[in-house]
């Protein structure tokens, strides 16, 4: 499709981003509600949504702040959740590495799970696309996804202050995370990593400063990586 | 409840910067260099390694029930996980998990 104009790759990205709003909208809403219920004011909720713009890490930070974990632990745990973004960044280098510095900075800021997944797939399919076409496609996916994230976070924050505590919103974060983890359990090493994480976290519940989560996370990453290595060595049955 | 505004903004600021650095790392700073295979192998498991550890204690011993195992919350967790594994659909897992939670809270008189 070498005749595709740069403008149409933007529209193509925009269209491809639309189905993801079904996920982005409720998540943004939920973060706004949960953040407000946890005691954040609207500026702080929007600070998370706009500056951090990473749902799972935001929920992690709020959960740990509610548990009164030390600031250092809140930061280390939330940043660990976001380490996968470095993988996304590496995957985009062959496609967007030659763009201007500020363009690469903007792409980086708006690299969320959904925009990355769309761009990575499309850039592998459309090998003939030029750098401007790829940049505009990425900008196209970002437009509906990020604007909806901001807007729904705001709506959620407004709603949050009017929801009474008997609605058990303490459990919104665990349910959200379980729903995120479950589809990610696609290989045996992923299952082993998750199971290790649960067992070690329960064993470390009395470790001070919520350090048990970091210990469990490191143990689980090693378990997953080792399981992957062992399974590779065994001949396929 | 979170009450210390300075601490909150410190967390927002550092988290925003750290997250940006993760995203900018290769694209902006390191460039077109291969990541060592052993690092990639560990990075693949960051999300499934950290998130379960964060919620396992809360699921089994919810602070909302003073650490007592709660049938409503536990069954909601099991339904969410089962639906998520089965359908691979995050939204269905949340919807059916929440429905289970509220249904069970209603049945067990957990609503006030």
Automatic annotation (TrEMBL), chain A:
InterPro entries: Brnchd-chn_aa_trnsp_permease. GO terms for biological process: L-valine transmembrane transport. The keyword Transmembrane applies. The keyword Transmembrane applies. Its main location: membrane. GO terms for cellular component: plasma membrane. Coiled coil: none annotated. It is a multi-pass membrane protein. The chain crosses the membrane at residues 20-40, 47-66, 72-93, 167-185, 191-223. Pfam families: AzlC (PF03591). It is found in: Cell membrane. Keywords: Cell membrane, Membrane, Transmembrane, Transmembrane helix, Transport. Belongs to the AzlC family. PANTHER family: INNER MEMBRANE PROTEIN YGAZ. This is Inner membrane protein YgaZ.
UniProtKB/TrEMBL annotation, chain B:
Keywords: Membrane, Transmembrane, Transmembrane helix. The lineage of its organism: Bacteria, Pseudomonadati, Pseudomonadota, Alphaproteobacteria, Rhodobacterales. This is Putative membrane protein. It holds the Pfam family AzlD. It comes from the Bacteria. InterPro entries: Brnchd-chn_aa_trnsp_AzlD. The chain crosses the membrane at residues 6-30, 42-61, 90-109. It comes from Nereida ignava.
